[in-house]
Amino acid sequence: MKKFVTIKDIAKKAGVSINTVSRALNNKPDINPETKKKVLEIAKELGYIRDLSALSLKNGVTRTIGVVFEDSSNPFYAEVFKGVEHQARKYGYQVILMNTERDYIREIQAVETLIEKRVDGIIISPTQFDKKDIEHLINLNYPFVVLGVHFENSQFDEIYSDDLKGGYLATRHLLERGKQKILMINAYMYKSVAKMRYLGYKRALEESGLQPYFMVEIEEGYESCFNKILELKNMSYDAVFCFNDVFAIAALKALKALNKRVPQDVAVVGYDDISYASFVNPSLTTVRIDKYKEGMIAFDLLHERLTEKRTEPAQIVLDVELIERESS
Amino acid sequence: MKKFVTIKDIAKKAGVSINTVSRALNNKPDINPETKKKVLEIAKELGYIRDLSALSLKNGVTRTIGVVFEDSSNPFYAEVFKGVEHQARKYGYQVILMNTERDYIREIQAVETLIEKRVDGIIISPTQFDKKDIEHLINLNYPFVVLGVHFENSQFDEIYSDDLKGGYLATRHLLERGKQKILMINAYMYKSVAKMRYLGYKRALEESGLQPYFMVEIEEGYESCFNKILELKNMSYDAVFCFNDVFAIAALKALKALNKRVPQDVAVVGYDDISYASFVNPSLTTVRIDKYKEGMIAFDLLHERLTEKRTEPAQIVLDVELIERESS
DNA sequence: TTGTATGCGTTATCAC
DNA sequence: GTGATAACGCATACAA
């Protein structure tokens, strides 16, 4: 690769010092307009492109944030990412995205790399399998925001949705539809989201004088849920409340394979309201989270930290909303 | 934010020079094992984390590549991205993702920023609205790979799918199903992909002694296609070949709204085979591209450049495959 | 208004 | 085996 033009090259060609070049490039006041014009012209002519690595080193600031997500191919995170990006652009920040594929080891590595890159801050959706990486960030006093989950007694910034309410709304809705044997397909409960959604499910049932019917924790992903439904084919249930829409879409497919009618035989409710939830047939009843907003707020929280507008931990809980469609 | 520990800090505490610290940290041979051990211990104790900005500046290498995609929330790109990431991880590279939202201005900015960051190379899916940014990369002799599209007479690395074949397969399939009035909902034809898919459509029709029935170019995105189908509600057609699956899924929804039966009244074929293509109901007949592979190869092409294993431009054309499902 | 010198964190070249 | 020192590209305090 060709070597890049540096301010030194410009200085030489313009017959001035690098200092003057720097002044011209950065719109500093104390410079002769003529000199400035000349320098700028030469810079353009030579095709100068500043080196952000050098700037980072100099300034101790990268104007870059890191985002660590479980799975950016899940439309939920894709949408959140766009929200983050939107705000980042607005404030002139770059975003580095790292996927963990829900692998805690990868999560640790991702955080480590981002620190090595000295990103100004990090937005992370942790697996919650463990939290060494989070503790590391705390010890370093590194600015970060946890997205999507909640740690008990956390003293750092978090944004997540009201999952208890979501689980509650979904389940109550199914009860109102006359369903009683409500199966819940959940993610692993070490994740706060999974736990809260379960508690919402439980609460709604108990309010109706019922006990949780059956809850099963499985690995996340379409296949995983599809297989589970097939596996439970001899179980009797009249509704399924799924941890998220990816699960729910898998459930729809699996139920179809089992010749169950949705919602007559089995009603299905998902969570997240990804766009595909309304595209499937029957369209999916689900709990909506404003994903874009979640991403935007996550960035804003981080930005407040970076600019030290706020030093106290903030915990934002996003409201959720039940979206009734054909599957229930 | 706390200041980071530097090799200088380690040196001071260990009572050695920074040079020695560097040697210990980088596993250099010419160092006393005892010294090394001691230095490493102190480094750990102090919580040393190397500064990649400084390394970049020193080495002129970032071990980072940039990826510029039209829309990473389209599952097509999400999947490609995973392929890129997979290979990048394998070779120890980081990946920066930038979305352009199909905005050419943003595309230019994205490329500019990546160059400023001195990423080692770039993988880009250009809008093809114009190609100033591509030319810039060429002029700089910057390593890059174009993904998903093809520029005529290009002298740089490209990976794209056999879109002519794809368009042909899709259309011939519809003809074989007895459809004759095949509407094509296309993206803008300044994109080579859109153009080639159209040419495939045309060829298949001409082979059957037919002329292209009707092709319309629209902006990409679900809404755009949904609205177009509604708009064309008085048109007579018995099949729709869509530029991609997002379009096709929108078409399914719109046709349902128009009370058309799929595939009896109108058959639908998409393109890409995103996972949701099989989740919708009726499931979608589509042209499959191996997206993960496309991403992996894109990285490999770039990596060959970076390591100078290859200097000649490579043009990889991925084969495609028709996946027959319920919508046709 | 402009230039010189220093330092950001690191590695590499060269003495010792 | 170890330590000074320069260099990477840039911004800036200070000197001129």
Protein topology:
2 copies of one chain form a homodimer.
Chain A: H1 7-14, H2 18-25, H3 33-46, H4 52-59, E1 64-69, H5 75-90, E2 94-99, H6 104-116, E3 121-124, H7 132-140, E4 144-147, E5 157-161, H8 163-176, E6 182-186, H9 192-207, E7 214-217, H10 222-231, E8 239-242, H11 245-257, E9 267-272, H12 276-279, E10 285-288, H13 291-306, E11 315-318, E12 321-323
Parallel strand pairs in A: 1-2, 1-3, 3-4, 4-5, 5-11, 6-7, 6-8, 8-9, 9-10
Antiparallel strand pairs in A: 10-12
Helix pairs in contact in A: 1-2, 1-3, 2-3, 5-13, 8-9, 10-11
Chain A binds a DNA duplex (16 and 16 nucleotides) through α2 and α4.
Question: Could you please describe the fold and organization of this structure?
Answer:
The structure is a homodimer of 328-residue chains. Chain A is 45% helix and 17% strand. With 328 residues, chain A is α/β, with parallel strands linked by helices. Chain A has three domains: 7-50, 434 Repressor (Amino-terminal Domain) (Orthogonal Bundle); 62-161 and 291-318, Response regulator (Rossmann fold, 3-Layer(aba) Sandwich); 163-289, Response regulator (Rossmann fold), CATH 3.40.50.2300. In chain A, the strands form two sheets. In chain A, strands 2-1-3-4-5-11 form a six-stranded parallel β-sheet, with helices on both faces. In chain A, strand 1 (64-69), helix 5 (75-90) and strand 2 (94-99) form a beta-alpha-beta unit. Chain A is elongated, with a radius of gyration of 25 Å. The first copy, chain A, starts with 6 loop residues before the first helix and ends in a 5-residue tail after the last strand. The mean pLDDT of chain A is 95.
